[in-house]
Amino acid sequence: MITLIKAAGGLRPLPNLPTWDELRALVANGDLVERVHVIYDQEPAWLMIDERGLLKNLPLNAIATEVYRENWKRQGRNVSSLWIVGDAVLISGSDYRDYEARDQELEMEDLKRRTQK
Length: 117
Known about the structure:
Elements: E1 2-5, E2 11-13, H1 20-27, E3 33-40, E4 43-50, H2 62-73, E5 88-91, H3 93-115
């Protein structure tokens, strides 16, 4: 499952596994994307967020924050100062496994794009 989690509220399923460029457009307005490992529905997943979101003063994403905090709560940690800002993409289930298989390919694509500038 690939889901866009809007900071303004709401979820939107995405039909295909996005490329790095598509992820940048979806969550970071073309900027850097941070990949955060989480557990979602008791399975490993990725939460893709704007790496510089806090510096940009992006709005709180309550849904993504709850997904993120649940992981820390399981470890008995204080979560009051943890939050996710801006839009996020959650990659879970079979799409997580597909993403993991394609991860190296995506990173090479990203490296090529950055070195061509």
